[in-house]
Write a structure and sequence with these properties.
The protein is built from three helices and seven strands; from the N terminus they run ββαββββαβα. By secondary structure, it is of the alpha+beta class. The longest helix has 15 residues. The termini are far apart.
Length: 110
């Protein structure tokens, strides 16, 4: 084992690699795939489907959601994605809905 200091002065202990480069890359890819948040759009709908637009994008994690407006000037951390609908609904004339982004595999099946 060897002890090295990183850029901020934290001591790190290094040891022999447990994986080859390819094995490690595969493990990291699987981890990212397994823990990736689900993506969704908050779509505002005017009237009875007269018009609609994407007002915000969000990421749903296991225990919370993050939402940012498409203009970039409004951000929310929420317990669940559905709570974003309250902020984007404006009376009866403008309603909001969540639209989940389909995976590449799901898009190819349709």
């Amino acid at each position: 084992m060897e002890t090295v200091d990183d850029e901020v002065g934290t001591s790190l202990t290094t040891s022999t690699a447990l994986w080859t480069d390819d094995e490690f890359d595969e493990m990291v890819d699987e981890m990212v795939t397994d823990y990736a948040p689900n993506l969704f759009a908050v779509v505002q709908v005017r009237g009875s489907r007269v018009d609609g637009h994407i007002a915000a994008w969000g990421m749903a994690f296991e225990h919370h959601a993050e939402v940012i407006s498409t203009s970039g000037d409004f951000h929310m951390s929420l317990q669940c994605p559905e709570r974003a609908l309250h902020a984007y609904t404006k009376g009866e004339e403008i309603t909001a809905r969540l639209v989940w982004v389909k995976s590449e595999e799901a898009r190819q099946m349709t």
